[in-house]
Design goal:
alpha/beta, eight-stranded parallel beta sheet, 18 helices, 25 strands, oxidoreductase, formylmethanofuran dehydrogenase activity, EC 1.2.7.12
Length: 564
C-alpha cells in the first residue's frame, strides 16, 4: 500500500545541508519502506494530513537493560514489593507488570512505542546467557532489538592476553563470540575487575595488575578496541570504566581514553564516571574535564546515564562495585553472584533523593555532560535504564535540554550545596529539535551501522513518528500524534491501533563477521578448563533465532549492508 504524509515539517539530520528547523515536505512509503515521491498523477492509497506537525524517524536507544538474567533477578529480589509480574494481577490498585522502573516485557515495549522508539539495544549479553537474553528481548513485542556481547572478564580472553598471543588470535576469539551469540557489538564492564573480584580484589584501576593473569585493564581495553576495529564491527568497544561511582574516578576515565590508543571507544553511562574529589563533601563534578577530553580525542563517544529522582533498582555485571553499593540498598537487600566464571551480576535496589547532596550533584553532572559536549552526534540520551532511572524519563530530559528556564527551575529544587557546586546554572545552551533528532535517531543509527533506520530517506524502514508541534516539548515527545512501525500505524495519540493486518516480525540486529577457524580448537581447549559446558553450545543458529526464539535475524555486514 502506498502512503503519503502531507505537509509535515521533516527533521532528518542524515541529509547534509538541510535546514536545522526542518523542511515542510511530503513523505511517501510503500511496503514498509520509505520511497521516492512517485510520478505526477499517481494517487496514494492512504493520505495523512501532517500540517502543524513535525516528523522524525523512529527513536533508537543504544543502551537499555531489557533482557538477560539480571532483569529477572531484580524482579525476584523485589517480589515482596511487587507481586509476581507473570500473574499480572493488581495489588493495592497497581498492576505489577506496569512497575515504573521494572516493567514486564510487554509493558516495556508499549512504553517505548508510545514515545516513538522503535529500536532498542541491550548492552550486556553474557555469552552463556545469550540465548535467554534474546528470548526475553523477543518478548518485547514491536521493538527491533540487539545485544552487545560481554567480554573482558572471561578466563579465555584473559589467558590469551596474558600468554602474549598475537592480535590475530584475539581477533578470531572476539569474532567467534560475537557470531556465536548473535550480537552486534562488544561490551566490557570494569575490565578485568569482575574476574579479579573472585580472587578477593576489591579495587582495580586502569594500571592495576590482575592477581592471577597479571594483565591490566588498560591492556584489556587496548586489545579489545583493536579487535573490534579489525574484525569490522561498526560500533566501537562499549566500555563501562573502572571505579564506577567512586569519587575521583575521572582519572580512571581519562586513563581509559588513553588506553584505547586512538582506536574508537564508547564510554557508557559516563555520568557515573565523571566525579572529582573537590569541596567539603569530597565529591565534585568533573564533567568539564571529560568534555575537554572528547574535544581532544575524536575517537571517543559517550552516552550519559542521566539519573532521575525516585525509586529504581541498579543491575550491573560489575559485581565488584555492586558489592560495595549493597550498603546503600533501599530496601536493605541485594544479589551478588558469579556467572559461569564469565562475569558477575549485582542487583541493588536504590532511591535517588532530590535533597541528598550526592544524588543532586549526579543529576547536575549528567546534564552538564549533555550540554558541554558540543557535538550531539557524540553524546547519547540514556538513563542506563533502570540504573539511573526509567527510560520513560526521556521526554522530560529532552525538555530540560531544550529549555534553560526549566533547568533553572529544577536546579532551584535540588540540594542547595549541589546547586552551588554545579556549573549547570551558567550554561545557556539549549538543544534544538535538530540536535535531539541527531542524538536519538541519526547518530545511534550511524554508530551502530544501522543504515536502514534513523533516517527518513528512501530505502529506509518506514519507522516514522509524527508529533503535533507544541511549546510543551515534554508533552510533545511523551505522546506523539502517530507512530508508524514499518509503515503501519501502531499508535495514535497514545492509543494502540488495532489492525486486521499481521504485525511485521520483530528483528534481531546482529553483526556478521568472518571467523578465522584455525584457532577455534585452541579456544575450545581453553574454555574446557574453566567452563562447565562445551563452548560450541554458545552458538545460536539463524534457524533457532527465527523459529524458536521468534525474531527475524538481520545481520549487518562490514560496510553497512544487511543480510537477512
Amino acid at each position: 500500500m502506498l502512503t503519503v504524509l502531507r505537509g509535515s515539517r521533516l527533521i532528518d539530520p542524515s541529509v547534509r545541508g538541510t535546514k536545522s528547523s526542518g523542511e515542510i515536505a511530503d513523505l511517501w512509503w510503500k511496503d514498509g519502506r520509505i520511497v521516492e515521491a512517485p510520478e505526477p498523477g499517481i494517487v496514494a492509497d492512504e493520505t495523512i494530513d501532517g500540517s502543524g506537525c513535525l516528523t522524525m524517524a523512529g527513536g533508537i536507544d543504544l543502551h537499555t537493560h531489557i533482557g538477560g538474567g539480571k532483569v529477572t533477578l531484580a524482579r525476584m529480589l523485589l517480589g515482596d514489593q511487587m507481586p509476581p509480574w507473570r500473574e499480572a494481577r493488581r495489588f493495592d490498585g497497581d498492576d505489577p507488570a506496569s512497575c515504573e522502573f521494572l516493567p514486564s516485557a510487554s509493558v516495556t515495549a508499549s512504553r517505548y512505542l508510545d514515545m516513538g522508539y522503535t529500536t532498542c539495544l541491550e548492552p550486556a549479553v553474557i555469552p552463556c546467557n545469550a540465548r535467554s537474553a534474546h528470548a526475553e528481548m523477543a518478548d518485547v513485542r514491536g521493538l527491533d532489538t540487539g545485544g552487545y556481547c560481554l567480554l573482558g572478564n572471561d578466563d579465555v580472553l584473559l589467558s590469551l592476553i596474558a600468554s602474549g598471543e598475537p592480535q590475530e588470535v584475539i581477533n578470531a576469539y572476539v569474532a567467534w563470540m560475537v557470531q556465536a551469540t548473535r550480537c552486534i557489538a562488544v561490551k566490557v564492564v570494569n575490565p578485568g575487575g569482575i574476574n579479579a573480584f573472585k580472587f578477593n580484589e576489591r579495587e582495580m584501576d586502569v594500571d592495576t595488575q590482575h592477581p592471577k593473569y597479571g594483565v591490566t585493564p588498560g591492556q584489556i581495553i587496548r586489545t579489545l578496541c583493536r579487535a573490534v576495529s579489525e574484525i569490522g564491527l561498526r560500533h566501537p568497544l562499549h566500555v563501562h570504566c573502572s571505579n564506577l561511582g567512586v569519587p575521583g574516578n575521572i582519572e580512571s576515565t581519562l586513563a581509559t581514553i588513553q588506553a584505547a590508543d586512538g582506536y574508537p571507544i564508547h564510554l557508557t553511562h559516563a555520568q557515573f564516571h565523571s566525579y572529582g574529589t573537590e569541596g567539603p563533601y569530597k565529591f565534585s563534578s568533573a564533567a568539564a574535564k571529560l568534555a575537554d577530553a572528547l574535544r581532544a580525542n575524536p575517537n571517543v563517544t559517550l552516552d550519559v546515564g542521566q539519573i532521575q529522582f525516585g525509586r529504581t533498582v541498579t543491575i550491573s555485571a560489575d559485581a565488584m562495585h555492586q558489592f560495595e553499593n549493597r550498603n546503600h540498598a533501599k530496601p536493605r537487600k541485594s544479589v551478588i553472584l558469579d556467572i559461569e566464571c564469565e562475569a558477575g551480576c549485582g542487583v541493588v535496589p536504590f532511591r535517588y533523593a532530590r535533597r541528598e547532596f550526592v544524588h543532586s550533584l549526579q543529576w547536575a553532572i549528567g546534564l552538564e555532560l549533555f550540554l558541554m559536549v558540543d557535538d550531539p552526534s557524540r553524546v547519547f540520551l540514556t538513563t542506563d535504564h533502570p540504573n539511573g532511572g526509567p527510560f520513560t524519563a526521556y521526554p522530560h530530559l529532552i525538555a530540560l535540554l531544550t529549555n534553560k528556564s526549566l533547568r533553572e527551575t529544577v536546579l532551584s529544587e535540588i540540594h542547595s550545596d549541589a546547586s552551588a557546586a554545579s556549573s549547570l546554572g551558567g550554561i545557556d545552551r539549549e538543544y534544538s529539535l535538530h540536535d535531539i533528532a541527531v542524538m536519538t535517531r541519526t547518530a545511534p543509527a550511524s554508530i551502530l551501522g544501522l543504515s536502514d533506520r534513523g533516517s527518513l530517506q528512501p530505502g529506509c524502514i518506514a519507522d516514522v513518528v509524527v508529533y503535533e508541534e507544541s511549546d510543551n516539548v515534554e508533552a510533545m515527545f511523551q505522546t506523539p500524534r502517530d507512530v508508524f512501525k514499518q509503515g503501519r500505524r501502531i499508535r495514535s495519540r497514545g492509543k494502540v491501533i488495532d489492525s486486521s493486518q499481521p504485525m511485521p516480525r520483530d528483528q534481531t540486529l546482529a553483526a556478521r563477521v568472518e571467523v578465522d577457524s584455525r584457532y577455534v580448537s585452541q579456544f575450545r581447549d581453553l574454555h574446557a578448563r574453566t567452563g562447565t559446558y562445551a563452548m560450541d553450545r554458545l552458538q545460536i543458529s539463524k534457524g533457532e533465532m527465527d523459529d524458536v526464539i521468534g525474531s527475524e535475524l538481520v545481520e549487518m555486514v562490514k560496510g553497512g549492508g544487511q543480510h537477512v
